[in-house]
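BACKBONE GEOMETRY TOKENS:
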Amino acid sequence: MNLKSKIFNVEIDEISGTINQILDMRYDDPVDITDGRGRFASTSYTLLSDDITTGIKPRFTPYVSRESVYGKPFKSNNNGIISVNEETGTKIHYSLDDQCLKIRLEQGQIFYSEFGLNFPFNFMSKKGGNWMRQFLISSPFCTFDNRFCFVFLTRPDKKNLLLIAENEVDGYKIDYSEINFGHFFENIKILSSFDKAYGLLDRPYKSVSVRLVPVSDYLEALRYAAALYDVPVVYYKLSSGFIGQQLKVDLIGECTHLQIIRPDGSTYEIFVPETSAEIDLDEYGVYHIIPYNGNVKGLDCSIFAADSWYKLSTKTLMNQKQHYNRIVMCEDGEKPIWEPFGTNYPGAMEVSDKNLCESQMWALAALKYLNHFGYNEKAALDVKNLLTWVTASDPKLYLDMLTI
């Protein structure tokens, strides 16, 4: 069963009621935006009786959700398609026009803890695909009060996509591939409710309404969100500055004033007769900027104020962890050699990744610090220790993906 428009050609499975493929019609040779394995828009859930806090923790995710599908799809009265799980009563509705694909999931007679939708897109790293036409999860966004949520999906060829929730949801959850220690995305869930273990208020009736919208850039995505929610949006071109400076933020939609939440928690308001405003940066830390149109709260943004490059760099450097107490070798008259710092991936099998690519990028930052600001004892000792491993000639110090 199919839905067709200028933007998408959607194929819905005749048995499960989930989506088999969504062809993006912006290409001369249309491209499937799903991972091609079916079950796109299946239900992600946990039962009220499930306890995700017990048992062996799975790798690369806090817990594993259950998944269910629906039933034989049928046409609805408004040219959409509906599919229902006869056992649980869970119902999904699809509709398509020339602007977006709408998907709505409603719970039935079974009450759930987690409840939401799976979206296994054609993410970058999926084999057999053109990487220029695959997605990255660039900017998942939730407002400061969690009222609005969307995900901006980018492609290298700039034929991007907006996944936006119409109704209020708890948020999103990303599933990572086990390939290369979780480097790649497999799935993103939009969840009406997180599992009860997260301690959020329960929604007595759970539903998720989302739209898939082709967009060219992030600004177009923000404009679409402002129009859909009928609220103002504040955004920045530059996200940070230094104490004593002003930082410009821009506005979309009608906005009467901005509420500024300073790093110390105090608030004040400024009125904005124009389409932009200047925010005074007078304190170190994060500022939250919330736009209002009268009493209607819009989509906010956060900006950062640093005290100076030197102080910011020093704070970062001094907070870099090292395994000083894990001495591997200590020869007479020589500095002790300690185990290099690594990123740990917990689970059934504990893995500590010490590779030069991600886990040791701190060393490049430390060297740049020494070059810009002069000698720092911690930076010098830490980098020398790492270089001992990187350039080791003693087989006792050989480490995969670290020693050259």
Notes: The helical segments are 218-229, 309-318, 361-373, 377-390.
